[in-house]
Amino acid sequence: MAATVWLAWTFCRQLMPVARVIDKLGSSLGVISSWLVLLACLISAGNATIRYLLSYSSNAWLELQWYMFAGMVLLGSAYTLRVNEHVRVDLFYGIVSDRTRHWIDLVGGAVFLLPMCLVMIWFTWPWFVQSWTLNESSSNAGGLIRWPVILLLPVGFTLILLQGLSEMIKRAAALRGFHQHEYAYEKPLQ
User: Where is the Tripartite ATP-independent periplasmic transporters DctQ component domain (predicted)?
Assistant: First the structure.
C-alpha cells in the first residue's frame, strides 16, 4: 500500500511540468481567442458600414465572422476550463470541501470530460478529412472554403482534452498536497 501511495505521489509530481506546458498552450490560445473577438467585431462593423454606405456586400465577410466565432469558442474553451470559468451544474459543489471538489473534478474529468472529447474527436476528424479532400467550399456565392473551420472542431476538442488532462493532474497533485489550485471555485450569484 505504501509503495502504491509513493508511486502515485511521484507520478503526479512528475506530470506537473506536463500540466504547466498544457496550461501555457491554453493561455496562448485564450489570448488568440480574445483577439478574434475584436477582429470579428471590426469585420462586422466594417461589413455593415460598407453594405449601407456603398451598397456592397460579400458572403465571404459574413462567413469569416462565423469562422472567427467558431475559433473563439473552440480555441478559447481550453482556457475557460483552465481558469475555472466553465459552465458547471452546481447541485452540491458549493457546499463541499476543497478536497471533495478535487475528487469531483478528477472523477468527472475521467468519466465525462475525457470520453466526451474522445468521441467528438472521433466523429469530427473524418468530417474534416472529407471536407479537406473535397476542398469543400460554401454553397453561397463568394463564400469561403469550409475545411479550415471544420478543422477547428477536432483541434478544439483535442485542446479541451489536453486541458482536462492538465486539470486532472493538478487535482491529483492537490489531493497529494503539493499543488495549490490557482483558480478557486466561486459560488455563482443567485
Answer: 42-172
Contact 171, 102 (CB under 8 A): yes
Q: How many residues does the chain have?
A: 190
SS3 category, 153 = helix
Alpha-carbon distance values, 166 to 22, 40, 107, 133 (Å): 6, 30, 14, 33
pTM metric for this prediction: 0.82
- DSSP letter (8 states) at residue 144: P
Q: Which three cell numbers stand for residue 115?
A: 470520453
Biggest distance spanned by C-alpha atoms of the chain: 76
Dihedral of the alpha carbons of 104, 115, 80, 21, in degrees to the nearest 10:
100
User: What's the CA gap between 186 and 83, in Å, rounded?
Assistant: 11
SS3 content of the chain, % helix, strand, coil (to 5): 75, 0, 20
Do 71 and 33 form a contact (C-beta atoms < 8 A)?
yes
Tell me the per-residue pLDDT of 44-94, one tens digit each, with 9 for 90 and over. Answer: 888 888 888 887 777 778 888 888 899 999 999 998 888 877 776 667 766
CB atoms within 10 A of CB 8: 13
Q: Which residues pair with 145 in a beta bridge?
A: 137
- d(CA 93, CA 95) in angstroms, rounded, equals 6
